[in-house]
């Protein structure tokens, strides 16, 4: 083994950080290289929009975390889902979608894809088979597990086997499981993740990633994305690179703080079910098959609720803030009306859910805030 020549190293700039490259125009050494610049789309550099050393460094980190080979960074979690759908689907194709997907994903499928002549069918959020819905036109199956707000888990392995048997690709929104999973080992072909959550971890930017394990699929999606004219800023890429270095520590700490909150909530008379499949409920084993742990996101189904009682509870909370985009250091709470959001039977089809994100504030203050909130909930009618 070579011994590093530490004397020759003197004066070298040896920061531990990735440089932030701002660029639109890139220049080329020769006419030939300029004319061939599109060949640089996948591995080289041709224009700031298509990648810089900073965005490529981020994509490499994300690909490693997800267990894939290549990632594409895009401006939001939603774009990470919609980009592959636009790149891969054509009129006449059919796509199957888990009923529990993120609301804007659902709207994209029903408003944009159906408008393009792509047929969309939803299947139950806790499905272990989609055999009855697969047709020769089915090109893609979209999973989100655990589901948005309602936390049901699909059986990824079983669904992927069925989908692959008819030649369909499987895409999963892994915003929940980022840093805790390798969905490729369960048959997923495309992993779409909202880095706006724990990936960035501080509620200060939006970003998403598309990760694959197959190079041909990477090229198809990257080409499609390059035609949409979307890209990410170098500064935002840098912020996510910085946050990813503490990702395992933050996930573990959010999980450690969430355990006593889950126990406390499970004893509340106002609560019917605590939805935290890492440690409670009938889908614990399925969760353990896909994810190495939990984190700070959970939901509870209320025995009874009304907008008035929820408003009395939430509007005066002191530590929990009302908001949806979880994954930062702050605790959040958000109501969800089941009666308007699901098509197929799953956890329930009516009633109110509260989703909580347990942040890094002192645990005592979180429990006191919830306790006072339930007192207001009960005093209101
Ligand atoms: C937050 C989230 C998204 C959307 O991410 P944005 O960056 O806000 O567009 C998509 N899917 C899931 C599961 C999410 O939690």
Describe the structure.
- With 381 residues, the protein is of the alpha/beta class.
- It has 11 helices and 12 strands.
- The protein has a 7-stranded mixed β-sheet with strand order 1-7-6-5-4-2-3, with helices on both faces. A 5-stranded mixed β-sheet has the order 8-9-12-11-10, covered by helices on one side.
- β2 (94-98), α4 and β3 form a beta-alpha-beta unit.
- The longest helix is centred in the last third of the chain and has 20 residues, at 247-266.
- It is globular and about 75 Å long.
- Pyridoxal-5'-phosphate (PLP) binds next to α3.
**Shape, per Cα inertia axes:** globular
**Radius of gyration from the CA trace?**
22 Å
**Tally of helical segments:** 11
pLDDT < 50 stretches: none
In the sheet with the most strands, the strands line up as 1-7-6-5-4-2-3
Rounded mean pLDDT is: 95
Cα separation of the termini: 75 Å
Strand content: 15-25%
The unique ligands bound to this protein are:
pyridoxal-5'-phosphate
H and E string: HHEHEHEEHEEEHHHEHEHEEEH
Roughly how much helix do the residues carry, as a percent range? 25-40%
Biggest sheet character: 7 strands, mixed
Strands, total number? 12
Category by helix and strand content = alpha/beta
Ordered list of secondary-structure elements with their pairings:
Elements: H1 31-35, H2 53-66, E1 70-74, H3 77-88, E2 94-98, H4 103-115, E3 119-123, E4 138-144, H5 156-165, E5 169-173, E6 190-194, E7 208-212, H6 215-228, H7 234-244, H8 247-266, E8 271-275, H9 284-290, E9 297-302, H10 307-314, E10 321-322, E11 332-337, E12 352-357, H11 363-379
Parallel strand pairs: 2-3, 2-4, 4-5, 5-6, 10-11
Antiparallel strand pairs: 1-7, 6-7, 8-9, 9-12, 11-12
Helix pairs in contact: 2-7, 3-4, 3-6, 10-11
The structure holds pyridoxal-5'-phosphate.
């Amino acid at each position: 083994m070579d011994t590093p020549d530490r004397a020759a190293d003197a004066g070298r700039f040896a920061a531990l950080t990735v440089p932030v490259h701002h660029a639109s125009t890139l220049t080329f050494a020769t006419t030939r290289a300029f004319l061939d610049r599109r060949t640089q789309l996948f591995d080289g550099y041709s224009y700031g929009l298509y990648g810089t050393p900073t965005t490529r460094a981020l994509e490499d980190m994300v690909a490693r975390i997800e267990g894939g080979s290549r990632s594409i960074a895009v401006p939001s979690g939603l774009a990470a889902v919609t980009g592959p759908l636009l790149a891969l689907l054509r009129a006449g194709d059919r796509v199957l979608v888990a009923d529990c997907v993120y609301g804007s994903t659902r709207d994209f499928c029903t408003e944009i894809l159906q408008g393009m002549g792509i047929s969309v069918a939803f299947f139950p959020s806790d499905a272990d088979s989609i055999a009855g819905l697969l047709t020769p036109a089915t090109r893609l199956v979209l999973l989100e597990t655990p589901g948005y707000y309602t936390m049901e888990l699909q059986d990824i392995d079983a669904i992927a086997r069925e989908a692959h048997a008819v030649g369909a690709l499987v895409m999963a929104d892994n915003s929940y499981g980022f840093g805790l999973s390798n969905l490729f080992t369960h048959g997923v072909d495309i992993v779409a993740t909202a880095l706006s959550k724990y990936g960035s971890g501080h509620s200060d930017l939006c970003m998403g990633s598309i990760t694959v394990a197959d190079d041909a699929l990477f090229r198809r999606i990257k080409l499609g994305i390059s035609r949409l004219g979307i890209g990410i800023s170098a500064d935002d890429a840098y912020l996510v690179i910085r946050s990813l270095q503490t990702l395992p520590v933050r996930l573990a700490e959010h999980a450690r703080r969430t355990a006593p909150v889950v126990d406390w909530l499970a004893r509340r008379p106002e609560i019917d079910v605590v939805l935290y499949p890492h440690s409670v409920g009938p889908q614990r084993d399925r969760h353990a098959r896909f994810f190495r742990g939990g984190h700070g996101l959970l939901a509870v189904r209320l025995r009874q609720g009304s907008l008035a009682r929820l408003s009395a509870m939430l509007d005066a909370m002191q530590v929990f803030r009302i908001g949806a985009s979880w994954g930062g250091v702050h605790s959040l709470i958000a109501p969800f009306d089941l009666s308007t959001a699901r098509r197929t039977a799953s956890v329930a089809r009516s009633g109110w859910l509260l989703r909580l994100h347990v942040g890094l504030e002192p645990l005592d203050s979180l429990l006191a805030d919830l306790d006072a909130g339930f007192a207001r909930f009960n005093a209101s009618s």
